[in-house]
Structures are given as C-alpha cells and as structure tokens.
Amino acid sequence: MARFNQAADLINLDQRFRDIIGVPERVINVNLPVKLDDGTTRVFEGFRVIHSTVMGPSKGGIRFAPFVDLDEVKALAGWMTFKCALVGLPYGGAKGGITLNPKVRSTDELERITRAYTRALKDVFGEDSDIPAPDMGTSFREMAWIFHEYSRIYGYTPGVVTGKPLHLGGSKGRVPATGWGVMVTTMKAIEKLGWDPKQTTCAVQGFGNVGSWAAKLLEDQGIKVVAISDHTGGYFRKGGIDVRDAVKFLKKNGSLDGYGGAERITNEELLTMDVDILVPAAIENVITEANAEEVQARLIVEGANGPVSSTADAILDEKGVLIVPDILANAGGVTVSYFEWVQNRRGHYYSEEEIRDKAAPIMIEAFDRVYETHEAYQCSMRIAAYISAIKRLATGIDLEGNF
Ligand code: NAD
After folding, report:
1. pLDDT tens-digit profile of 52-66?
2. How far is CA 375 from each of CA 87, 266, 382, 384, 385, rounded to the nearest angstrom?
3. What CATH number labels 19-168?
4. CATH topology of domain 177-329
5. How far is the centre of ligand 1, averaged over its atoms, from the C-alpha of 177 (Å)?
6. Which of 59, 95, 188, 224 is catalytic?
7. Atom of ligand 1 nearest to the CA of 234
8. Sequence-ordered list of residues with C-beta below 8 angstroms from that of 178, at least 6 positions apart, any chain
9. What is the pTM of this model?
10. Distance CA 64, CA 49 (A)
C-alpha cells in the first residue's frame, strides 16, 4: 500500500478510486474438516480473497504454508490485481491459501484437503469468475485435483484453473515462462541503458523454476552469469558459470550443494557483489535498508515477488540503480497462464513457439509503457508500474459507472 499511495499521490488519484482499489471486493474464510491418514479429523483453515474483478475474472495462486494468514492473502491478492492490470490481461486479482505445512502431510491428505477446499469454493471458482493457479507449496498436481473436483460438480471445465499438467490441458511454455519474462525485461532494460550484453555480468539468487530458467536464458543472450545460488549458498565463477551444467547437477542432486563448477560464496555476498545485473529470484525481502547501500549492481530485475523492501527502494533509487519491479519482471508466468486459459476455452492448443510469439509483445509493450511513465513522471520503474496499473484500473472503474 505504501507504493500504491506513492503512485496514487503522483497522479493525484481521486479518493473514490483509492477507496475502491484500497480494499478487497470479497474475503472468504473456509474451515475444512478433513480425515487424516491416522483416522482422526482435523479442521484446516483456508482463505480466498478476491481483490478486484474490474478488469475481468479474478486470477491468482493458492498457497499452502504454515504461516498463511488472511492479511498475507489480502496483500498478495492486491498484488495480482496490479500485475494483471499492468500487463493488460483481461483479469482482476485474487489469492488463496490454506494454513498447513505441506511437508508433513501425505499425498493422500493433501489431495483430500485440496478437494475439500475446491468444494467449499465451488461457487467462487469458475472460468468466468475466479481462476486459481499454483503458488508456494502447490504445483500442477494440486491444480489437477482442483480441475477434476470442480469438473465432477459442473462438468469438464479445464479453464477453471491454470498451471495444470500438460496432459490435462496445461500450456506448453508455462514452465520456463516466468524466467523467460525475466530475460525479456532484462534485455529491454539493457537496451535502454545502452549496454552490450556480451560485456555484461549477472548474478542470480535462487535456482528454482524462475532463477534457473532466467540464468539459462540470459546466458543464451551472451550475458556472463558469474554467480548463482540456492538455499544451500552461493556459487561464483569469474569466467562465467556453465548454467546448463549447474542445472544438470541440480537435477541429479536436488540442490546446488557440492557443485564443483564454481567457488563457494554466501547468499549475502552474492547480493552485493560487483556485477552489472542482479536477479533476485528466490524469496522476499532479501535487499533491505541493511544491505542496499552495499549493492553494486546497476540493474536489478526482480524475478521473485517483493525481494526489495520499500525502505531499500529509496536507497537504491538514490544510488541510481534501475529496478525492473516484480509486477513487470515476473509477469511472464501469468501471461502464459492467460494463454493456457484461452486454449482451454477454445479447445485449440498452441506450440511453444506460438505461445512465445503471443506473450513477447505483451511483455515488451508493458516494459515500454512503464519505461515511458518512469521518464514522464521522473519516478522509479516501480512507481511507474503502479501508476500504469492504477490508471488502467481507475479508467475501468470510471467506465463501469458502478458507484
Ligand atoms: P522455487 O521453489 O522453484 O525456487 C526457489 C529457489 O530459491 C530455490 O532454488 C531455493 O533453494 C532458493 N531459496 C530458498 N530460500 C533461499 C534463501 N534464503 N536464499 C537463497 N535462495 C533461496 O520457486 P520459484 O517458482 O522459482 O519462485 C521464486 C520466486 O519467484 C518466488 O518469490 C515466487 O513467488 C516468484 N514467482 C514465481 C513464479 C513462477 O511462475 N514460478 C511467478 C511469479 C513469481
């Protein structure tokens, strides 16, 4: 909300829009009695927050984590509204979650919990109303269960959820999509900065879905990826890491621990090392007022959601660091999810190349619009991204005339 307010102030946003956008449209709290494997019953608490449906059906992931609470889900739902509005998808924003630790639950228990959650929200979910997706602690497996449970009630409805397995109507190109979007927005930023990719170095924090794909695709563009990391620590090689080799190692060993192709460093060292580009693609709040001053990269591209705290923003802006904000940099995922939904509804499926051809202009147009706004308002790319999203939402609210 701090960033929303900053952007709203810059464009003198009318109070009625602030009031409408500032709160979620609907907040749903469900309690799910589920039989555990040991025969006992436990009630799990779940949430679904529909932040906005102004621009279309609400879209957003479902998180399974022990710390999930309503405040977090509300904040994440708002984030989705801004992200979808920014890239111009015909969606509003939502988020869901269940307070549970998926690591201590069996597959059968997780299936029963996911199906109970789907039944409890059967009147909320819908391909024209609210479309879930995976988030922390959930994957294509849970999406398949939601699709199946919902279709049992209403008949075959693959468009009710995205992030499904390819076999059940998922989209080609969804797995690399977010890392791919990070690469596309990085290349656009490099172009604006007038850098030669072949003379550019990069460090990537996080080597999961987003980080490993971003590193691989940036390497393909001629950028030297000198450092990567995961939860086990960082790995540095001055001459450039062989990203494909590191991915091979990860697939075999489950983590980067023991990777011999580079020197060991810490995650903290990676964040402040002497590189041109830093791609934080792991978790939130890794750059804060505690280390922002030491950051040496001149371009930060946020693969993760919220890796730079709002207090660090001011310090980095002052240093002249260009930040491609999360709602733009990692929007490749939701953009390809949109095409999954389009394919499900048409019953016609695209090749990976067709998906890229459709998604690329969306990401490039969004980047250019944010960059122009950043120049026009003399503000950070982050605030520019919020301005662009807010303008779209406010225009939609105004045209609806619903207040
Ligand atoms: P993932 O679980 O596949 O990978 C996370 C990576 O971060 C792993 O390599 C893990 O070891 C590493 N990590 C965890 N804790 C760490 C720590 N303390 N220090 C350094 N590394 C650490 O997750 P992902 O899907 O790649 O998502 C990463 C981020 O991107 C999250 O913030 C997520 O919300 C965001 N995001 C993901 C997508 C998507 O499509 N996957 C879309 C938009 C945003």
Report:
1. 999 999 999 999 999
2. 18, 36, 12, 9, 12
3. 3.40.50.10860
4. Rossmann fold (3.40.50)
5. 14
6. 95
7. 20
8. 209, 210, 213, 214, 303, 330, 332, 333
9. 0.95
10. 15
